[in-house]
Each structure stands twice: as C-alpha cells, then as structure tokens.
Amino acid sequence: MLAASKRWVIVATGCQALLTGAENGVQGMYFHTGTLNASCTGYAVLCQTGTNSYSAQPIYYGLLFTHLLGTGRFLPVTTSTAAKTGGNIAAFALKTSSGGLRVMLENLSPERLNATLRDGKHAGSATVLSLTGPAPLATSGVHIQDAAVGADGHFSSGPPDTLRCTPAGCSVTLAPYSAAVVTLG
Description:
- The chain has helices at residues 15-23, 58-69, and strands at 7-10, 28-31, 46-50, 53-56, 73-75, 89-95, 101-107, 113-117, 124-132, 143-144, 161-165, 170-174, 179-184.
- The protein is mainly β.
- The strands form 4 sheets. Strands 5, 6, 7, 9, 10, 11 and 13 form a 7-stranded antiparallel sheet that branches.
- Strand 3 and strand 4 form a beta hairpin.
C-alpha cells in the first residue's frame, strides 16, 4: 500500500518491490535488514567476513540488478501466462533517454518459464543479463550473469547473452526464481 506521502516502508526484497514503488512515484525506500555482523544471520545487505571485509548478500544483488536496469520512462506492460503452467511473472519496461527499450522480467515461480517480448518495433539482436539464485529465500549463491561481487566491492558482470528478435518478438527463457534485463535497440 502506498502512503499519501509517497514514502513506502519495505520489509521485503526484490526487484519487483523496487520497480513497483518507482513506477508509482515513490521517492525513497527503506530496507529494514539485519545488523551488520560476522554471524551473517538475518537478511542483511552485507555480511562482515573479517576486519573491514564484507560480502554482498542476496538483497544486495537485487538492489544492484535493479540499478543495472537503468533509468527511463516507465511504459505499460501486459503479461499473460499459459493456464496450465501457472507461471507467475512480473514485467517492467523502460524507454531510455537514448530511445532504447529495457525490460525486466522476474520469474516468481518454481518452474522454468518462456516469455515472448512483443512491441512490434524491435527486430535484430537484444542483450540479456540474468539474476539467478538457488531458491527464493537463498542466503548465498546469487549471481548476476554468473558473476559475484568481489570482496573489495567491485562488480563486473559476465558478458550479456544475445537474443535474436523478429518482428513477432523476442523469446526469453527464465530459470525458476530468476530475473532478466533485456535491452533492445
């Protein structure tokens, strides 16, 4: 629920929460997380692994992945899933300042899902970055394009995957409980 002041207190994580807030004009979000400590319990953004040494936790990856989507103007998105799969997908689209299109898809189900992006304009190639993890409540093993945040805080994702798009659309396969940022144009 959004408060009249457009400030939202979030006690959860995920790209969907961040983007739903942004799409609805939220000006800031507060992520209530566990205490920064060496026991790495709770749902902390960082875990202390030594003196002045930390490791990024799953919530950090969700925040970073949302950042990688970039900025732009939100566009309306319509989603549908095959009734027999019961898939649950969230989708957000941005028109970038350079005129490109970026779409974030989040598979919120335990099944692999195939999604087709259709805008009727983009044909050719598109790039895809993926956020993956072992389970929805994982406390480790989360990666962006098979890369992890380094102990020094440095992050460099692996090379993006490439999709071939036709006027009929771009097909994207999403692993269970994963997300993808697709860049077209």
